[in-house]
Amino acid sequence: MEAFEILFTASFWVAAIRIASPLIFATMGELICERAGVLNLGIEGIMAAGAFAGWFTVYSGGDLWTGVAVAAATGAAFGLLHATLTVPLGLSQHVVGIGVTLLATSITYFTYRLALPTVTSPPKIEPFQPLPIPVLSDIPILGEALFSQTPLTYLAFVTVAVVGWGLYRTPLGLAVRAAGENPAAVEAQGLSVTAIRIGAVMAGSALMAIGGAFLTMSAFNSFFFEMINGRGWICIALVVFGSWRPGKALLGAILFAAFDAYQIRLQQVTGGVVPYQLFLMLPYVLSILALVLVARRATYPKALMVPYQKGER
Questions:
Q1: CA 91 from chain center: how many Å?
Q2: What's the CA gap between 207 and 215, in Å, rounded?
Q3: Which of 211, 183, 218 is nearest to 197 (CA)?
Q4: Using an 8 Å Cβ cutoff, are 104 and 78 in contact?
Q5: Contact criterion met (CB below 8 Å) for 179 and 197
Q6: pLDDT tens column, 173-182
């Protein structure tokens, strides 16, 4: 009974939304890339680079929003590298993506050791603080969960709205979606498929990096190795779960975060009787089951992972 009551507590949903926030940023970033026809497997490394870049900017004296901007610029730079190799040069998106993850992760850890050679414990910064929205934050459970979060969490939800509006309500969004469905049609309209795809990967990678920066500047207050902990790979699955639609992907991110928050509380309820490894496995098992059920009906972009050269038909 106590395990069921957890679902109706404000603290549970506050934690779920907080856990979902970095996933929302990175999932939207991956969704933009894939909608344009590029699978970005560099997401894990880009999140790590963004986490470090944002944190180190603040640690060096910059303000928090400058840290977010630096993280986004760092992600866009790695996105440019990924896009240059995969779009005009047509190299394997799988191989390049994994290479970008290894490169970004290695550069991040090397820079950390180079900048802080004598540090034994991660230095701390003053992170974003919760910013309750008047009146709305007073709503029972829902108000505390959604309207008493940090500014970056609010930005994550705004990002979903902007991405959804941009993809489905603007000419640029139509061009991005067409580049992932029928790039020849885009070229027939006098647009550059290469430029659209490169721009989409850069924008998507910037969002991925902001997702990483959330961990060091909002969820925690320091940078430590392995803090991304597979979140990037989860976001790739969430794009499929959401059928490449921002709204559904948002629900997937919240669902996974709820599973994760729930397993932490279940460990406390059982009092250590059940091995904690089973609880750590729970959100991933449930997510895989949900993914299997949804993915069979998902319609992926037709030109995803298909290189395109100007003049091809």
A1: 24
A2: 13
A3: 183
A4: yes
A5: yes
A6: 999 999 999 9
